[in-house]
Amino acid sequence: MKTLRRQDTRIPRRPLLWLAAALLFTLPPMFGTLPSWVPLLFLIALTAKFWMQPKGYHLRSLFWKVVLVALILSLLFFSYGSLRGIEPGVSLIVMLTSVKILEAHTAREFHIMIMVAWVLCLCGFFLSQNLAIALCLLIAFTLLLVALIQFHRGSSSAFWPPVRTAGKLLAQAAPLIVLLFLFFPRFSTGFRFQIASQRGSSTGFSDHLSPGSVSSLTNSSEVAFRTEFPDGKIPTLGAMYWRGVVMWHCEGLEWNAPKNPAALPKTSQSSLRSEGVRQWITIEAHDARWMFALDWPANWPSGARLAPGDYLWSDQPIHKARRYEVTSYPEIPNNQLHSGEREPLLQLPAAISPAARALVQSWTAGKAEPRAIVEKALEFFRAQGFLYSPSPGEYGKNGLDEFLFHRRLGFCEHYAASFATLMRLAGVPARVVTGYLGGEYNEIGHFFLVRQADAHAWCEVWFPDRGWQRVDPTAVVAPDRVNLGFSSFLERRAAAGQLDNTQGVLARKLARWPIFARARLGWQTLSYAWDTRVLSFDGDEQESFFTAIGIAGRGPIFFIVGSLLVAIALLALYTGWTHLRTRACGDRIKRIYESFCRKAARLGAPRNPSEGPLDFSRRAMRLLPNDSERIRSIAEAYIALRYTPASDPMTLEQFAKAVSAFVRAS
Amino acid sequence: MRQGGSSKSSFPLAPTRSFAGLLFVLAAIWYAASSQNNAASYLLLFALMSVFLVSIPRTLLNLGGLQATAESIKPAFAGQEVSLPVEVTNESRATRYGIALTLPDLGDAGEHIDEIPAGKAARTVLRFPAATRGEHQIGRLHLTSVYPLGFLQVLKQLPTPQRYVVYPKPAGDQRLPAETARSGQRSSRRELGEGDDFAGVRAYVRGESQRHIDWKAVARGQALMTKQFTAESDGMLYLDLAAVQLDDLEARLSQLALWVIEAERARRPYGLRLPAAEIPPSLGESHLHRCLHALALFQ
Question: Taking CB atoms and an 8 Å cutoff, what residues of chain B touch A192?
Fold first, then answer.
């Protein structure tokens, strides 16, 4: 019940604290995606504000503001090279917000800062949309509500009430959010601003295979995609070769895929003998166009094509998570090799060392069959002391020879690339396939999670009698990698003391506790649901949802007006209910008497605020002589009810009746 | 004095300045979400929209059951501040937050009440400048609230027919007339009032200053009596508007107001002579206010 004069010159400390907390929660998406000095300067500005605020300082001089903004612009320009694109744009907003924080000191600027913080939430979603970021931004959103509520509550210093009010607001808003999310039409404005592609390089999967390109991913726990098997037919882990890109062009240890592959014609599925495995795959955004499916996809979703080599290729770069259905068959659908196609499959780099040639000649001697050559090559890898390592070190210019004859230490890409090169040397058509192998089964959500660390490379070899066959030289060197999956493989190694990363071991040991494992699976399931239920709900999904419930094709106006009408109806119901719940309880006698006074005022006898009931009735009787009898009886009843202790309840009813009859009669 | 009931005016909700900001942010999020087809941004858009929509009933009902009672206003001199004590009673069953009281007819005077629990009352004093001499009306009292989010303002207009008096600003550089103007009869040269010499007691009249109540007599169990004194001065001071040598009426009234105060301070019984009225000489607080009131209302 404290009263205080609103000070417009300073922002009260408590709302400012809430605002600062909210701003802190908008930071996580920035770390990692923006240059680290951007969120750091933002933090420094926030801290400085709390030092300045009690002293009444704020950034006043226009000169320094201009200098700061110029400094920020030039810093951004130097680190990005331009100010166009999403990340420089977000950095600019963050930096200008920092200046605004230093400058703001009035109540109006507090509101502006709240607005800016909402825009920062939006920026966060532009940088990343995963569940953890979404939760952070939800907290930021809630804290902004708390800051606003605290600001309008004034000086009351209680901690929980504004939080509770914000929580109630959010809880009441939740049904509306769901309603709007499902039914509010998703226009596409046609103006697309392009997101600068920065992600492709970080995820590492590429259309180019070189020593180290796959092993650089082994430490990335980022999700590549997730798969559900709707029919329950789940292949064994060792057979889960997720096909990504097929590489044709050989440069020794380096292989390249075509930049823009052509589309294969649709094949009739009746030609396939075996039964297919249906998959629902939710792929994470990677800004490139490859898509994944088990070996070998035969049909493909719309917006994608099957490229020569039987891999999926999206028509548009994948800028946001995408869910598609694909069916794979354990045999290759396009299993022919025309005469013109054989030539590029034997292409080799000019510089192949005599040692490699000699090695291959030792296998092909005596007109050996392709199958026998493959066996000999695999035997070579098995018997000659080759070792499998996620960190084999750098290979130089003469990488192929160095790997084959000297170091003999490599990761899957070394084995796949060298094996395919050797096959081509031997005259056997071969190609390299990159993708992922295995995955982690989530028993809560019943899906497979494939991480960047599961990236893998293998070979396919052409046999005249059976067509393309998969050959995975890594399986020969490190059978466990194939059968157990990469993380289990590492675990086993760690247990055997072959990894000296103690911290990693500790983390893994911790992760094996049942409760942590459950929590991790639960989190993955939630995050999968977020990706597939929420993030993938776009205009197309909405259209099919409308079709499913039979209201498709009504035009956006119908849905805007409809959803807003439903929202308003819900709000009106809520308003009425709250009003009934909180209206003045009190005093029925007084209410009835007040309605009498209002009626008398309408007739020309308004009651003076200072007049007692008796004085008023006397005056009213003079002013309204026709009703004097009624006025007298009402006044007497009122006085009796009001001032007689323990008045008769019957009198109250009569009084109410008399008042309600008052105007009608007159 | 009680003023209650709801206003009969137009729709009580109006957007505030930050509503424009909200619209801008919503439009920006909408544009960004639709151009990127970004479901998470859509979620943010709908969350902000829904929270705003849900806050409308809260704002709308935040003044429900509030009654404001303006109390009596003490007169003030022109150029000073007028204080209007207001009691706001919350007759509803919910706590009301963030209530602003303003007097729209009297400039930007405003007060803020942070919180009134259900069934309780809060008091505050509205202060506004007393601009011109005379009797004025408060006009309207506005209760407004932007709680909880500040995008909409709900308004409750309470007609407040109360009047207040502003005395002329005591000013002027003319000296209090030294020579008293005799009021004719010599017999009444010793005027009873608040002088220095004790002259006896008489029955206390309600409303008189309590300074001169004979408290010793009260202690003895007698009725309330007022001690009477005579002023030392020889005669009575008649302050006459016509006698003030100034051109401007307001300046003359200001001079008279200053003289009245000076005479009261000097404890010289004074009377006031205006063209339309005459107040016989006396002393005391009520006499002072009577004189100032007459000056304030002088046409």
Answer: 35-36
